[in-house]
């Protein structure tokens, strides 16, 4: 019985797949029209997008500033694009080739892109992605994959392939929306309303949605990096509005500022704003605190929400620290200590990696001994604070919670109102022990 049930489910699944990959009866007229297009995906090989539209509320950057077309350039023809308050308006110019308002940033790879479009005068349009250009006879030639947004009158309004993928300038139709599985997508575009197109491109996989309805699912390795373009297609008419043009790049390594990248102390002062003491030196990209009482040093710039990464090495029996959100020499502190030989280690929240005098680092932390390098990471983001040591999180606390308040009231900092939430400097402490740093890098959050 169990075998029969499994077989029945399998048969139903195969039947559903077969139906989904069947060309719809109202699309049969396009089969002969496009049968010679060599890059079009055969119905039986088409992948079906069944995913929900990605979340679009967090992590996105607006590509249009609401004032002018800074960051954009028009390529390919003389159709016009004009800033128009919250939107960009593209207008077809008769006898002009298709024209592409293109981002000047040309290295978009993996991303979620979203845009809203509205037709004042019907006309063919679309959004190109991972695109490129090359000189043409009269105009720059733009080529690459394009998500079709064809309006409402194309092919007497019968095709309805908005959300499909077209190989602009190098192929032709690639992923048409002619299957039974695409029926909802073909009906998704709304005349007289704003219509949202979303593209998710990651690696070789591209998926699209129109007004939240799944449309294309295309896998190809031909175009993996390039720019975005808003198209006004050649023709006799067309006026299209574009707004809420946003992108969230994926799998991008965050950019850090090297606080000693200039090879000197130009980004640093002493705690009173004067020059760095002579006992601090930089040799072979290693920052060393030596000499007799050179004093602590602070960044010139202030930080509140950030991720700081650095490598550190402490001398035998040494004691030092990296303070942050600091005012002068007062701030939250990532403790640097020789836990084996420094007497301060008798108090758990004074040991290496701890949030000094507030939160003890985990007992099983992966600490390398004095004279060897350790990798540290500090995350301060709003009320959230983390310390990391050699790849493991060893401290985590929320500022302002009951736990924080209890610890703060027992600490040496209890008389300093607002301590821990200040916007302040990064402070490398002089605690009269030789200490070494390298790869001191920060990024704002």
Describe the protein's topology.
Elements: H1 2-20, H2 29-34, E1 61-62, E2 72-75, E3 80-84, E4 87-91, E5 99-103, E6 111-121, E7 125-134, E8 141-149, E9 165-168, E10 173-175, H3 183-186, E11 195-202, E12 205-210, E13 213-219, E14 227-232, E15 239-249, E16 257-258, E17 268-269, E18 280-283, E19 286-289, E20 297-299, E21 306-314, E22 319-327, E23 330-337, E24 374-381, E25 384-389, E26 392-398, H4 402-409, E27 425-428, E28 435-444
Antiparallel strand pairs: 1-15, 2-5, 3-4, 4-15, 5-14, 6-11, 6-15, 7-8, 7-14, 8-9, 9-10, 11-12, 12-13, 16-28, 17-20, 18-19, 19-28, 20-27, 21-24, 21-28, 22-23, 22-27, 24-25, 25-26
Description:
- This protein has 4 helices and 28 strands.
- The chain has about 450 residues and is mostly beta strands.
- β24 and β25 form a beta hairpin.
- Strands 1, 3, 4, 6, 11, 12, 13 and 15 form an 8-stranded antiparallel sheet that branches. Strands 16, 18, 19, 21, 24, 25, 26 and 28 form an 8-stranded antiparallel sheet that branches. A 7-stranded antiparallel sheet has the order 2-5-14-7-8-9-10, with no helix packed on it.
- The N terminus is likely disordered.
- It folds into 2 domains: about 220 residues, Exo-inulinase, domain 1 (Jelly Rolls), CATH 2.60.120.560; about 190 residues, Sandwich (Jelly Rolls).
